[in-house]
Amino acid sequence: MGDLRIGQRIGWACTGLAAGVGMAVAVVSFLALRAQVSDGLDIQLASHSALHVQNARMALTQALDAAAALAENPTVANALVDSQGREAYVTPFLRGAGQAARGVAELSLHDFQGTPIAWGGTRHDHRGEPWVARVLEGQAVAAEAAGGGLVLAFPVRFPGTGLPEGFVAARITPDAVLNRGLPEGPLHSTTILRSASGTVLAANGPLRPGSPRVRVEHAGITLPPPLDALGLQVDTVVDAGEAAEPLHRLAALFLMLGVASLVVTALLGQAVGAGLARRVVALNAVARQVAEEGVEAAVSFPASGDEVGELARSFSIMLDRLRASHAELERRVAERTASLQASAADLRTAMVEVEQARARAEAQAAELTDLAARLEQARQVAEAANSAKSAFLANMSHEIRTPMNGVMGMSEVLLGTELSPEQRRYAETVRESAESLLGIIDDILDISKLEAGKVELERLPFSLDGLVERVVAILTPKAVAKGVRLSVSLAPGARGYRLGDPTRLRQVLLNLVGNAVKFTERGEVVLAVSESDADADGTRLRFSVRDTGIGMTGTEQTRLFDKFVQADASVTRRFGGTGLGLAISRELVRLMGGTIVVESQVGVGSTFAFEADLPRTGAPAVAAPVPEAGPVSVTPGRHVLLVEDNPTNQAVASALLHRAGYRVTTVPDGEAALAALASGGIDLVLMDIQMPVMDGIEATRRLRAAEAQAGRPRLPVLAMTANAMAGAREEYLAAGMDDYIAKPFRAADMLATVAKWAAAGAGTPPISGGGGSGDAPLLDGSVLRDLHAALPAERYATLVRHFTAAGEGLVAAITASAATGDLAALRRQGHDLISTAGNCGLTRLAEAGRRLNIAAREGDAETARAVAAEIGTLGAQSWEAFRAETAPLLPGEKVPAEAGG
Q1: What are the φ and ψ backbone dihedral angles of 764, each rounded to 5 degrees?
Q2: Gap between the Cα atoms of 88 and 77, Å rounded
Q3: What phi and psi values does residue 461 have, to the nearest 5 degrees?
């Protein structure tokens, strides 16, 4: 019975011990897990808040940089007064800058009243908002915009005056700032963007009421001026109670498992206790015997063979061995303790090194992230700069070519009149100088096209013999004039027909041979063409140009193919040139599959050589490059509609067309052209591209749509524009135009193109007349007499009447605006008076218009009123002199014999 009570006590003791240990482990584990979950939630909350702050800072900084860069862009400043440039260039700028800000901001350009005049997305009107006045005083402003959202504004200063004339506004979308490309946040979290006043600007979830379970992470956004004035803050909110729900479910599971394990342990404890009790009783008897008889006592057990009996028999042996082993164990313990202490020291050192390595890795990762951000920003800046450069080249090409067209066209008209030898020599010098300047412009455009990858070589059959002969023929007069011998060495294997781009090959050869002649004072220049040693089938040819000229040093040779560079400054002054020819030639040769190399020695001469892939072809050569246009065959009675807003270009083109036998009607814009075409009788349209009211592309599209709807034949439309950038021709043809004439044009080339298409004209819906302006000083009458000589009498009379009415009306408008103090109107009217009076030869009146424009632009009301009063008096005198000058040349009046000069 006592044995059974011992077994029960052992069983219950085992059960209690197991239950206590299990419960303690469960409680400790639960508390540790809850603390870890809470700490992890705090870390995740802080990390996500920091990520929102960093993302918002980057988004707002990108919008800031984009708006600031646009405000400092000269093209944007010019767009405040240039409606054509604004539509063509600034709107794409604003759209591209908004895309660079990744949807965070929409950018727009506003005039000095706050009215939007160009925008890249949605039109936002900021007139009347309190911050506009500060921007127009020259401050950069960040504020909460009317109607919601944030706005950044930077003043745009007009070139030359430095005064703010408008501003660039970036309207920021708070939702895009908050949620821009971020991963999901912590469990049940809400992120809120607030302003300094506490206004909620954006939130990515429901706003939660105050609760002890809600945790909030407050983080301010550090931003550069003027964004710092907004005092933006990010609040990240999470419900800690909801986050702990999985932990509570785990605690319940632990409790159920604990109860189940307690029951099982109780049953097992009772069974184990009963069995153990019996063995303890037997072992107790043995121990009592050993205690009574000593360790040497003989121990015997019943023959049952129980393990306790075996234990007793082994006890004596174990006791002896235990005593011997104890000493050995002490020794080994001491040795092992020392070894463990050394290992612990090594482990601590290794952990320190690992921590240092981790810190270095984190620092390197941060540096790489920062570097990646800077590289991305640099890439965006480079792309924006490249786009701005292309837009600048296109704009400058158009602005330079437009007056060049007047110079070259009027030179052609002048050379077609009776001139004295001295006058003819002067006129030819003007034409040659204009053609030289046009060559420089073409070089700049060529290098721009090559850099943009927009040049594609043609694959045409041509005669290499003929091409080389024409190159030499063009340059021989210049060589003979200098006393330099120009010769050709054409290997037999290189002769015959080749497949390639003859125009670009001729351009390279003309440049290399022309340079050789230019830099050679005596001796010879030799152009040699042979098969390449590295090509067995005769596809690859080697071209070399050797001269006995001034030569170059090694340093000069290394810089020779750089853009805008010649050997040295003295060479540029002595021989002239842009320094672009060799750079263009190098890129063209590269497109032909070769490379230009140079060998030179100072005082001895230079040799330029390159190889190009020009396969043989059995096809007959394409007709040689088009010769200079000769007399043009004009179909009698053809009627041409000239759509041109520039008065000088109107006068030039009309004079050339009238002289060639065409009937010409002129209108100033696309809308007037469509009205004229509705009247019928037009055989051909010469369409300018950039015009007010309606541009040439839109007018052509509407014409083509009307033709298709009415089933009319296609009327030839020729684009006539100063835009010669890459892709312009393709754009105009895609819009429905039939051909392209680049301004400035040579008279023979323009008339040849017109004659080709006029012969095919269908005589379909055309025109009613148009007027224009002229170009010329109280009073330079030579300009008017020249214009009279170039135009038919009726056309000249219309032009004079237009000049008189427009000029007198403009003087009256200036007087009225001065009376009301409207500086904005005076500024525009002064600008118009410069061109109107200058084109009529009224020099003093044009100068007064210039002074009025400057005074109004600078806000000098007193000076503007004084100049306006001067214009009122001077205007009456000027237009009276204009009438006196033009009256003898009008139809029905007796025209002086010298008027044609």
Answers
A1: -90, 180
A2: 14
A3: -75, 135
Residue 202 has a pLDDT of 81
Would you state the structure tokens that stand for residue 141, as one six-digit string? 């402003």
Q: How far apart are CA 691 and CA 642, in angstroms?
A: 13
How far apart (Å, rounded) are the C-alpha atoms in residues 290 and 688? 127
> Which residue in 344, 348, 326 sits closest to 336, CA to CA?
344
d(CA 444, CA 724): 11
The confidence score (pLDDT) of residue 306 equals 57
CA nearest to 878, candidates 847, 853, 842: 842
> What is the Cα 210 distance to its own chain's centre?
48
Using the structure block, give the residue that is written with the tokens 């429905």.
736
- List Cβ neighbours of 444 (8 Å cut-off, separation of 6 or more): 393, 578, 580
Query: In angstroms, rounded to a whole number, what is the distance separating the alpha carbons of residues 401 and 720?
Result: 11
Residue linked to tokens 């160009």: 118
Report the alpha-carbon distance of residue 725 to residue 555 in Å, rounded: 34
- The pLDDT value given to residue 545: 94
What letter would DSSP give residue 219?
E
688-711, pLDDT tens digit by residue? 988 888 999 999 999 988 888 887
Residue type, 862: E
Helix (H, G, I), strand (E, B) or coil at 191: strand
| pLDDT per residue as tens digits for the range 220-243 | 888 898 988 888 888 887 776 666
d(CA 201, CA 210): 19
pLDDT attached to residue 297: 59
Amino acid identity of residue 808, one-letter, is E
Mean pLDDT of 333-361: 87
Report residue 292 CA to chain centroid gap.
Answer: 105
Instruction: Give me the DSSP letters along 294-308.
Output: -TTS-----TT--HH
Distance between CA atoms of residues 850 and 853, nearest Å: 5
Alpha carbon distance, N-terminus to C-terminus of the chain: 151
Give pLDDT tens digits for 840-882: 778 788 888 888 988 888 888 888 999 999 998 888 888 888 8
**3-state SS class at 716:** coil
DSSP secondary structure string, 321-366?
HHHHHHHHHHHHHHHHHHHHHHHHHHHHHHHHHHHHHHHHHHHHHH
How high is the pLDDT of residue 586?
86
Beta-bridge partners for 141: 153
141, containing H or E segment: strand 141-144
Which strand (E) or helix (H) includes residue 404?
helix 307-415
In this structure, of 11-25, 108-122, 747-761, the range with the lowest mean pLDDT score is 11-25
Compute how many other C-beta atoms are within 10 angstroms of the C-beta atom of residue 601. Answer: 12
Nearest C-alpha neighbor of 193 from the set 149, 140, 147, 131: 149
Burial class (CB in 10 A: 0-12, 13-18, 19+), 377: middle
DSSP H helices, 660-695, are: 670-677
Angle at 808 between CA 803 and CA 810, to 5 degrees: 95
Residue 389 Cα to chain centre, angstroms: 9
Which tokens in the block code for residue 517?
């002649």
Average pLDDT rounded to a whole number, residues 129-138: 87
Report percent pLDDT > 90 for the chain.
9
State both tokens at 459.
């694959």
**Strands, sheet with 105-111, edge to edge from the N-terminal-most edge strand:** 116-119, 105-111, 164-172, 150-157, 141-144
Separation CA 240–CA 186 (nearest Å): 10
Question: What does the alpha-carbon distance between residue 295 and residue 676 come to, in Å, rounded to a whole number?
Answer: 136
Residue closest to 844 by CA, chosen among 816, 881, 812, 819: 881
Q: What is the mean pLDDT of the chain?
A: 76
Q: Where are the alpha helices (DSSP H) in 416-501?
A: 421-451, 464-482
Q: Helix (H, G, I), strand (E, B), or coil: what is residue 402?
A: helix
Could you tell me the strand order of the sheet in which 663-667 lies? 663-667, 639-643, 684-687, 717-721, 739-742
